[in-house]
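My current task is to audit a protein record that another person submitted. Please read both lines and tell me whether the tokens look consistent with the sequence. Do not assume that whoever made the record got everything right. I have pasted the whole thing underneath without changing anything:

===
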Amino acid sequence: AFHEDPGFFASALRGLLVKETFHILRDRRTLLVLLALPVVQVVLFGYAIRTDVNSVRLAIVDPSPDAVTMNLRNRFAGTGVFEVDVRRLADVEPLFQTGAAQVALVFDETFAEDVRRGGTAHLQVITDATDPNSGGLLQAYTQALIDDSRRSLPPPASRIVIVPQVQMRFNPTRASSNLFVPGLMAFVLTIVSALMTAISLTREKETGTMEALLVSPLRPWEIIVGKVTPYLVIGFVGALGILVEARLVFGVPTRGSVMLLLAEVLLYIL
């Protein structure tokens, strides 16, 4: 009958809450993780996930330097971008490969003459789109500066038409599979390596076999290696399967060294 007493349930619940509170306070490591992890994540993501357009590494190919092209270049320089002056279009590719350039502005040889005649002037905008969000922002930012520079010219030059020919480096066809399939590889490897290993260790503790392992002649690091190694092998085999599936099913090309990629996969799983 006393189990039906509401006061009994309130007292039992209060006792359970007090017990859990003391348990958390005594477990300093868990408390530290609960309090520090959100702070660390906010700091990491706050610095890593940014869409600000500043300190842009800009390469400019100006085969015929002129007051007209210098006006447009000064417009970019006034925004605080880091300008890299190159003379030939062939010099732009190494800059993109090494990450020294994010955007390249290539003037046509007759750009200044076309502006003076009041006709249509052409220039090429090449954007590094390995990060599609940043690439799109840089592309839009560059085109906005070009339009603003055109409007600042005195008449009749302000009525000319500047046609930017846009080219996106990395995935120029903008196929979605080329973006989400590599990302899914990292996601799947995270699940297999981290989550499944943690579940395996937790299962050992819940079934009571962890105590048997701890009193065995095995050392703690040997237990961890024994538990982790099978999932390391499974994750590596899964990565190979993902590469094959990405190529055969989705047509995602693999550029560069496959051995380097596999070594990085192994390091990522570890």
Summary: The first helix runs from residue 6 to 26. The chain has ten helices and five strands.
